[in-house]
Amino acid sequence: MNAPATVADRLSATGTANALELRGVSKLFGALAALSDISITVRPGERRAVLGSNGAGKTTLFNCITGDFLPTGGSIRFFGEDISEFPAHERIRRGLRRTYQISLLFTGLTVLDNVYLACCGVSRGRFSFIRPRRNDALMASAEDLVRVVHLEDAKDTPVSVLSYGQQRQLEIAMALSGAPRFILFDEPAAGLSPTERGELVEILTGLPSHMGYIIIEHDMDVALRVAESVTMMHNGRIFKEGKPAEIEEDPEVQALYLGGDDG
Amino acid sequence: MAVIDESGVSDTEGRKTGWAEQIPVQYWVVAILLLIMPAFASDFTLYQIFGWSFILGMIALSLMFLAGYGGMVSLVQMTIAALAGYMIAIFGDSAITDISQGWPWYVTIPIALIVAMLFGSVVGWLSVRTEGIYTIMITLAIASAFFYFTRQNYVVFNGFSGFNGVLPPNLFGVDWRGSKAFYYLTLFWAVAAYLIVLYLSRAPFGLALQGVRDNPRRMAALGFNVNAHRVAAYAFAAVIAAIGGILLTWQSAQVSPGTAGVGPVIDILIIAVIGGMRHPIGPFIGAFIYVLLKTFSIDVLTSLGLGGERFQLLIGISFLVIVFWSPDGILGLWDKWRQRSDKDPLRDAGESNL
Lengths: 263, 354
Ligand SMILES: Nc1ncnc2c1ncn2[C@@H]1O[C@H](COP(=O)(O)OP(=O)(O)OP(=O)(O)O)[C@@H](O)[C@H]1O
Ligand SMILES: [Mg+2]
Fold this sequence. Notes:
Bound molecules: adenosine-5'-triphosphate, magnesium ion
Strand order of the largest sheet of chain B: 1-2
Radius of gyration of chain A: 18 Å
CATH architecture of the largest domain in chain A: 3-Layer(aba) Sandwich
Strand content of chain A: 15-25%
Number of domains of chain A: 2
Oligomer: heterodimer
């Protein structure tokens, strides 16, 4: 966990700031406290797994971080910058990325077009009136990303006919567009076959080491292979934080979570 | 279809496939027919039927761009067209010499386009935070406000009577209100607007607009400023409407509050709905039908012993019939009758398949 930072790591981090710093974040849905007083610190390049039973507030946490909706209280810093009040697109343009638990894709477009759109969104070309030509740089990076997630054979297929697993891979490709500094993966492995899970783990562990992420994952096996630290959530609160081994052996955690269906 | 613009790409045999070869033959037939029309059509047909269809088609096209690609039903497009007409009347020449400044066309036309674009942006900025029926209501409110304002303002807009004697410049020594010249003038701008909208549908700006229509939340999570994109779409649509408005003003040589009264404002929506909003050709089909109905229904009605003023009823009925049979307008009917052909680049281009 405390491996010496490589030069790339130090260069990619802005000063000594943390990649993500949440202070007292809460979110109310009416009377329901989906998040209460969440404080999390993630270092640049750190890979964190978030565990927790259904309804624990994991997706809500992601929505607050990316600005899909604003938290009721608390502050969020991204590489030292207070982004609490920023609209979602401003956070994305600063290098934050996410995938959705239930794929949100443009089903009428092809795989490549979806990734291309993602690449446009984080570039100055987003207002371009000019159609991409063969040697278009954004299109080239879109093609690269399609290869990274092993979808090159399906790149001209409309998303509506993709298999579930392929849609999950496409979600990941879209989250890698541009120059991500930190990524939030919302249950990318859910519903995948064992082979697809293997591929996913490869993709995640193959990401450049300065690219930190938080991954929500029910499957301990996957979580332990792709994350170096674990945060347990329960009823909108942080329940435990630590290294995977500590969490796995914690009797409270075992009683609450690992002893249940997902363990 | 992939977004890549394939035009002019060499194929495997090293032969250059030009853009011309990718266009199916029926489009060539329509294009040639439109080009040689003045050889056999009457002056009335050229000026009144086709000229007017092209103009209304352009204004409805600006609505189709907003509604079809952006999911924003704006009722101010006719208002923007009239505003552009007012600008060339106020800053250029008209019979109202007290108000008209008499500036040359190369000043007044850019002014008209810029003012229309700014106005469209402001309307867009006011309405992008609303959705569905509220967008319709807020834009209708702005359109009515414009109508009453121009009718009551005599200092700048010359009130109820507006401006007459607004003529196109005698550029290249051509009388652009001659039926053939006006036909080609309106044809040129209609085709240009049509092609630009078609092209934009697969450029990042148009793709993103369709993305905003289908899933604004996802678009924001990809780094797009959803509202800025919508406002930009309003600005772009305003330019198309403004070109239509300038041509409309030249055609009748006048612009008045009635140009953008509530009736004409709604007519643009009817035209776009009749034609279909899924493809930029729809508004032109709708405009052609509207103009035919408006021009000939009086004759038909009076020959049947009915009052000629009932033509609005006829438009209303055809509107009902088309919406009832095909919510996608004539384009939707066309699709029902004809198997979709994948090789057809003009119908495959972007519409609501995002
Ligand atoms: N938009 C919303 N409006 C109202 N309540 C919501 C909304 N989103 C989430 N909730 C509620 O907030 C709580 C936390 O939901 P959340 O989706 O964050 O859980 P989760 O940990 O991601 O669960 P899962 O493992 O099922 O994905 C749940 O009780 C949920 O019903
Ligand atoms: Mg969730």
